[in-house]
Amino acid sequence: DSQDSTVSDGENADPRCTRQNSVTSVSQWDIPYDELVHGEVLGKGRFGIVYSGNWHGHVAIKELRMDYVNDEKTLEAFKAEVSTFRKTRHENLVLFMGACMKPPRLAIVTSLCKGHTLYTHIHENKDKFNMSKTIMIAQQISQGMGYLHARGIVHKDLKTKNIFLESGKVVITDFGLFNVTRLCHDSRRGDWLCIPPGWLCYLSPEVMRNLRVVQRQDDALPFTTYSDVYCFGTVWYELLCGEWPHKGLPPEAIIWQVGRGMKPSLANLQASRDVKDILMACWSYRPKERPEFSQMQSNLNRLPKKRLQRSPSHPIHLSRSAES
Ligand code: ATP
Q: Measuring from atom 18 of ligand 1, which residue has the nearest CA?
């Protein structure tokens, strides 16, 4: 009897609700492209163009470059990334708001980050953070990353360009987008390896060893939660030293050295043993020897909040060589 079933259906009694609930979860996050109001271009990356914009408030719109890729595989990769994004809710991760998923208009809409990236602070503005701020930033990165890993998500592209600092709060962006990025660029590659500036310092030995001169779509680089921890090590180094590891080395030398298990020199790093131990552990050659982010948080908590002062009675021997 239809009346009975309506009653027993509880919250789905209204047929409009039932229809709404049956709509697939992907389309819940579908934003009609026409609803987006584009503002200024914030920048161009490997992924495409990022605009500030408006969609029920200020947002960032990441538009995937579709001018030469329009195959089903890209679309599937994109949808997979979107479904990854949907699973994230953490105060140190950028807020995913929805996506435009109808080619040729593919875009991801997130909250607009205020403030600067750590990259801008460290490498452009040459800002120096004191030890307690450095630890506070590292802790928040660890929290966001620990959450991602607990949800089974590998960031794949953790770097200072993808970490914003908004009045003391860390916001991590671009998790899981690496595959889409790569798909967009493969078809234009020639017989050479395109290495975006600054990228190599974040590649763990096992990823480095899998770089190919012509990187095809099916030889995906072996990114894991462990390779994310390696990236964190590099971010930790940049925070501490204000510069890149391997400074001044040509790309070929970095690839060769890291692939063979050599770590960057710590000669420029004035820090206590505990601080360096975190770095060494994150940069371990064997992935499983790298700490998990939950462990990292307790390691960071134990650090003294004051930077070690180098004095004549406390000389260079603390700058332990980083070679494994
Ligand atoms: P790469 O492509 O090598 O990762 P990138 O990080 O600069 O380089 P995008 O991530 O595409 O490239 O970002 C382009 C620009 O947009 C950068 O200046 C970035 O800081 C800015 N941006 C990205 N996401 C946001 C956001 N949610 N809020 C504010 N600005 C953003």
A: 43
How far does residue 47's CA lie from ligand 1's centre (Å)? 9
Ligand 1: nearest atom to the Cα of 111: 27
pLDDT in tens, 15-32: 444 444 433 455 778 899
The catalytic site residues sit at 157
Cβ of 74 closer than 6 Å to ligand 1, yes or no, is: no
Q: What's the mean pLDDT in 74-84?
A: 79
Q: DSSP string covering 158-221, please?
A: --GGGEEEETTEEEE--TT-HHHHHHHHHTT--SS----TT-GGG--HHHHTT--SS--TTS--
CB-CB contact of 182 with 210 (8 Å): no
194 pLDDT more than 80: no
CA-43 nearest atom, ligand 1: 15
What local confidence, expressed as pLDDT, does residue 212 receive? 77
Dihedral in degrees, nearest 10, Cα atoms 93, 94, 95, 96: -110
What ipTM describes this predicted complex?
0.96
Query: Do residues 145 and 322 lie in contact, with contact meaning Cβ atoms separated by under 8 Å?
Result: no
Ligand 1 atom nearest the C-alpha of 157 is 4
Q: Which residue has the higher pLDDT, 315 or 92?
A: 92
Say if residue 298 is exposed, middle or buried (CB neighbours under 10 Å; 0-12, 13-18, 19+). Answer: exposed
